[in-house]
Design brief:
The chain is an alpha+beta fold. The chain is built from two helices and three strands; from the N terminus they run αβαββ. It has one domain: Cytidine Deaminase, domain 2 (3-Layer(aba) Sandwich). It comes from Haloplasma contractile SSD-17B. InterPro entries: MPN, RadC_JAB, UPF0758, UPF0758_CS.
């Protein structure tokens, strides 16, 4: 597990940096919602699709994006957002 970004916005470069350094073929992205509600926002879905697109170009599959809150978590893959 790698912590890549501790701010509200991460660039694809930051997300994939450690995956490239370690020769990963795939990644799972996760972030928290401080509100406690793990429902993905439109921006969460947009960023996830951008990461998938960038990953496709680099040969690194984005397996899932988990949004975590005090009420549980949501898998964007399981919920068919990706």
């Amino acid at each position: 597990m790698f912590i890549v970004c501790l701010t509200a916005i991460c660039s694809p470069r930051e997300v994939f940096k450690e995956a490239l350094r370690h020769g990963c073929a795939s990644i799972i992205v996760a972030h928290n919602h401080p509100s406690g509600d793990p429902t993905p926002s439109k921006e969460d879905i947009r960023v996830t699709q951008r990461l998938i697109d960038v990953g496709d170009l680099m040969g690194i599959e984005v397996l899932d994006h988990l949004v975590v809150g005090s009420q549980g978590y949501i898998s964007l893959r399981e919920e068919k957002y990706i």
